[in-house]
Amino acid sequence: MLGFNISVDIDDKSITISFGDKSFVMNYNNSIGHMVIVDRDTFKVKFYQTNGYTARGEGIQDMLNGKVYLAKGPSVDEFNVIGKKISSIHKGSAAIKELCNMAKGDNVSYKDKFSEINGFPTLCSIFPVELKGERKGAVLKVEDISTLQNVIKERNDALAYVEEMKKIINDNVLDYEGLSNIKGESRVMRNVKKLAYKASNTNSTVLLLGESGTGKSYLAESIHNASQKQDKPFIHVNCGAMPETLLESELFGYEKGSFTGANHEGKVGLFEKARGGTIFLDEIGDISLAAQVKLLGVLQNKTFFKIGGTTEITADVRIIAATNKNLEEEIREGKFREDLFYRLNVFPIWMPPLRERREDISYLSNQILNQICDKLECGEKFISPAAQKVLFAYDWPGNVRELENILERAANIADGRIITENHLPEKISNNEYGSRTAGWKSFQEYVEEAEKRAVLETLAYCNNDKKKAMQALKMGKTNFYQKLKKYGI
Length: 489
Ligand SMILES: Nc1ncnc2c1ncn2[C@@H]1O[C@H](COP(=O)(O)OP(=O)(O)OP(=O)(O)O)[C@@H](O)[C@H]1O
Fold this sequence. Notes:
- GO terms for molecular function: ATP binding.
- Residues 182-412 form the Sigma-54 factor interaction domain.
- The protein is an alpha/beta fold.
- The chain folds into four domains: 5-148, PAS domain (Beta-Lactamase), CATH 3.30.450.20; 202-352, Rossmann fold (3-Layer(aba) Sandwich); 355-437, Helicase, Ruva Protein, domain 3 (Orthogonal Bundle); 443-486.
- The chain is built from 19 helices and 19 strands.
- β1 (5-9) and β2 form a beta hairpin.
- α5 (187-200) crosses α6 (216-226).
- It binds adenosine-5'-triphosphate.
């Protein structure tokens, strides 16, 4: 029998176990400390200290048997481990094996090692117990670190969350390289810039949607300039402005003598001119069904023929298309080919109208005014707060283009450095209804605006896949399609 003394210091909240000239101090404030002493010959437990061995033994009971132990009440006996073989209580753990080796007389070096005991993560240290130089047993000091692990996990989760937040914040302050000329800091415009930045890093066909004057052409060129193709041509084709008869020959070119009136040298088409770069097919919704067939061929095969030509030419270009039309509506009316739409609608980006991002108006106005003043060489000019208010209140049917025109006019009229409301066109400054109510639209209007934006943004994110957008928005089919109809999407 081993002889050891146990003393408890209540003030210090510690237990001291002394054996011969050795003492082990356990702080019982620390609920995750445990101590086991086994004897040399039988490996039987001589002492088992744990938080609550005498009160609530949950911690050690869990460690011993993997189940809940309640020291108070009828199950107290279950925890009577003194005199039991250590291997019957703790199975197979490295720490227990080393404890037995140490008890036997081996000199084991085991200090603060991680070991799993009965499924619990612990830090263990093993000490020899000797009397007059003879090994009598061993002590295992166990620190249950599951609580610690939880704390570490919580800390790691918190750090991961902080990292995620940092990423989101960085994303929001990031001046997407090459796209800083696209002005607008509203949430929707930041989203546009983010998508445009992604588009600039791919070769996929981009479809820019949105009202006239929202900046689609501007964005198309910015995407090209921010892409790897920036040193290659950017060819802007205004499909809407081109007579149907000319469009095909302009896009694909023709061989010499292929039709009456043709240049006898033949013609290099815009697809060839854009080789290696970007072709921007603006007002794509305006092209004839015949031209749509030709275009579909290019998108499908990545090749085309010149008019009158027999050699297949590879279309080595990135296509960006834009329209202010509702192409799905056009499809329903038989004016636009569905297959072409799907070929174009690979990476759609929707440009929000200015009235749906009023928070951009002040910043945009100042930025655009600076550019105008540079262009006019009229010195720096400023917009008075009252004029700013008027600009904010107006509904901007012509979007950024209209804002640009109005500011250029104002910069020309204003003799001094300040642009006041008197320098703005009457339809804007007399916009009684607007100045009174814009920015304080009816609740219903706000709701409708938000609904429309939610649907459009989600559709853009889902590559116009209605089913996915519907699921993402957690909307029922009927409700979803009603909204599409209501907002003409
Ligand atoms: N975010 C912006 N930052 C700075 N200028 C802008 C921005 N958006 C548009 N503009 C300016 O507004 C004008 C109209 O833009 P743009 O021609 O690109 O519009 P659009 O959507 O292509 O119009 P349309 O459909 O009529 O062709 C341009 O002169 C452009 O410089």
